[in-house]
Amino acid sequence: QVQLVESGGGLVKPGGSLRLSCVASGFTFSDYYMAWVRQAPGKGLEWVSYIGGDGTTIYHTDFVEGRFTISRDNAKNSLYLQMNSLRPEDTAVYYCVREGRIWNSLDYWGQGTLVTVSS
Amino acid sequence: DIQMTQSPSSLSASVGDRVTITCRASQSIGMYLHWYQQKPGKAPKLLIYSASSLQSGVPPRFSGSGSGTDFTLTITSLQPEDFATYHCQQSYDSPRTFGQGTKVEF
């Protein structure tokens, strides 16, 4: 069955960096777009970035552009999010998500990893 | 960016009730509209994709309708396990965007 397991979250000071990882299993990883979606405490869902199956198509939302970088290693079935210049408003649970191939729905989600940005 | 507006933001209901949640897009998105259910402390789960297609394993009391800019999620005969927050999301364009969520509570 499809599994997505995130890691790498934690407490970081404003201006600091973190690298989130997500290991996928149960499907042909390189066939799918993958995304990161976040949820601040008590707030709604916020889509952050996606990356195409071969890694050449990438999109970041405006609020992370220039600070976050999504990448993938298909040989390791892994998705990454490098987060630099972190701000308190980046505090959230970050979910690794698979985007379905036909209608681009988010059909499988990881359990999430919490990132807390605080001094 | 395409703005997604859900209503209501919360609602009170009882077991057995019929519940309707609406989602409006700021421009036409065809049928690129999906619904997710999220329980406290858990990851969201896909319920309905392309406006009206039920994801595998989702009970048939859930249904979706609409196209263009106006969409509806309906739960017929609400069950105890359905008390949760529901989110709509468009995948017509990037960035993908979500509604603000609708909390269904007692």
Quick overview:
By secondary structure, chain A is an all-beta fold.
Characterization of this structure:
- The complex is a heterodimer of chains A (119) and B (106).
- Chain A is 0% helix and 52% strand.
- Chain A has no helices and eleven strands.
- In chain A, the strands form two sheets. In chain A, strands 2, 4, 5, 6, 9, 10 and 11 form a seven-stranded mixed beta sheet that branches. A four-stranded antiparallel beta sheet of chain A has the order 1-3-8-7, with no helix packed on it.
- Chain A starts with a strand and ends with a strand.
- The mean pLDDT of chain A is 97.
- In chain B, 0% of the residues lie in helices and 48% in strands.
- Chain B contains no helices and eleven strands.
- In chain B, the strands form two sheets. In chain B, strands 2, 4, 5, 6, 9, 10 and 11 form a seven-stranded mixed beta sheet that branches. In chain B, strands 1-3-8-7 form a four-stranded antiparallel beta sheet, with no helix packed on it.
- In chain B, a hairpin with a 3-residue loop joins strand 5 and strand 6.
- The mean pLDDT of chain B is 97.
- The chains are: A mainly beta (119), B mainly beta (106).
